[in-house]
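My current task is to audit a protein record that another person submitted. Alongside the sequence sits a line of tokens, each denoting a local backbone shape. Where you disagree with what is written, explain briefly why. This is what I was given:
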Amino acid sequence: MDDDELLSGGVANAGAVVRRGNHVVRPSNPHSTSIHRMLLRLAERGFTGASVPVGIDSDGRERLVFIPGDVAIPPYPAWVQTDAALGSIARLLRRMHDTSTTVAPDPDATWSAEMADPAGGDVFCHNDVCLENVVFRDGEAVGLLDFDFAAPGRREFDVASFARMCVPIDEDEPASRLGWTTADRPARLRLVCDEYGLEAPARAQMLACLDESIARGGEFVRRRVEAGEAAFIAMWDALGGQERFDRRRRWWAEARADCETALR
């Protein structure tokens, strides 16, 4: 439509997400009905930090209420790399998790298994809280976007996924490609735990989830590459293929001890 505003960011849905007035229209997926039901129930219970679904259009695309604010895309600007911004995402995620525990499980719900917690759990997890999926106002996180990979899981698993992408838990060189500046990663990881409110046992579990995530690094992208998805093939090649993830595993083997110390 002539009044559509293309919204930037993302990989799988790049170029396919538009703002149409007060709504966002984007591709749906086999789990959109379940995701919509959950988001509506969260909104009914007072959680205002997520897209509110409107429905599925006749063309099969999903429609959600637009969340006004700022969304950072690479290269990430300085304002979104601050400790204040990071802490605000952790608090927003905690509010969503807490609210989700007041929602009765939907026995008919289906969820994507691609990025879900393999152990399962009793909270609604986003599983893809990268900076491109967070709306900010005045540097404060106010909304989460793109719930395509949401699924029930453990708090610690979702916090670990968010921390890996937003601390970030990564080497300097690949992180710099996205615009990240050098930061004290152990201190930022502790900040995430402090602001979310993870106690000592949960911090150890979160660290174990990070271990698992980094050990499996590259599997999600590689599956999309093997399926022939052009955007992911380009990403895979730009990242340096499997070696990028092997290198991160070697880096984590050395960096982990400092993070563990910071979390005590």
